[in-house]
Input
Amino acid sequence: MSSQMQRRDFFKVTSAFLAGSSAITQPGGAVQERAALPVVISSANGMKAAAKAMESLRAGGKPLDAVIAGVNIVEDDPNDSSVGYGGLPNEEGEVELDASVMDGPTCRCGAVGALKHIRNPSKVARLVMERTDHIFLVGEGALKFALRMGFEKENLLTEESRRKWLEWRSKLSARDAWLTEEESGTEFGEVIRHYGTISCLGVDAAGNIAGTTTTSGLSWKIPGRVGDSPIIGAGLYVDNDVGAAGSTGRGEANIKVCGAHAVVELMRQGKSPEQACLAVLERVVRTTKEKRLLGKDGRPAFQLNFYAVNKKGEFGGAALYPSRFCVNTGAESRLVNSAYLFKRAQA
Ligand code: ASP
Output
């Protein structure tokens, strides 16, 4: 029951952009790429983050400091229910966070997965990189490490996120002890399954590159589920000789193609950031064979975004379906259209 219900919820969230459906197969919506340094790009929820990162780069800050300072704003924001404090919880009502950081100049990286109680997993990921001989800490071990590094344990579940979780939980089964809407006489409202993440990539005036991706992952996930965000090569990859890539959207689809690494490798071979993102999305389409993940038209019934920037400051973004991303080449962040594979699909 529970998995069917989850699937139904999953399709409900995707149908927002799948509804109404006429598909095109040509990439569309592309933005004009511009070479300008320094440059910061991020997922569309990163307007403030990219501005903060740019401010830091213009003041001579290091790219890694800049992008982490940027995403910390979103991690701290209770109103972003997909990242850090206020993120939507797992199926047991507990917030579990994933994050990765990667520093081009030093070729180092760090990550945490399924981290509870610490609102800034990107900072913990950075300390894994700087203070340990490891790259990836998860769960209880990641929390212990964070506490040893002086982070404070806190309840990351905001009232709003708790309410959404409770609504979801109460609708899960008619056979358990949680009352239905009618039985309880309370309107639960629509309960959908959420994805959401921030990925932020920065290149300084000298062409040095860093990136971070941080998230509360898929809402109502099975405890312990780790998405693509903290996986080096999937949710994030940086090569100081070439460029950087990050991703948001259905992590399970990205992990299978090691997306961010693939994007950077294609840029190394000469593709533009946007072309590289589109080529990897085509792999995602080829590797999505599960019927439950396909719409009636046979196309993926989920969204996946890639963002990429090269050493020269050319940037691009692409997604399976129309989407936007954030760019900052000066004081102000702006949203630009991503290229996409399919205009719309059938639910
Ligand atoms: N990629 C994230 C994950 O799968 C979620 C998202 O970006 O929406 O955990």
Observations:
- The longest strand covers residues 108-115.
- The pocket of aspartic acid is lined by residues 195-197, 215, 217-218, 227-229, 248-251 (CB under 6 Å).
- The two ends are 21 Å apart (CA to CA).
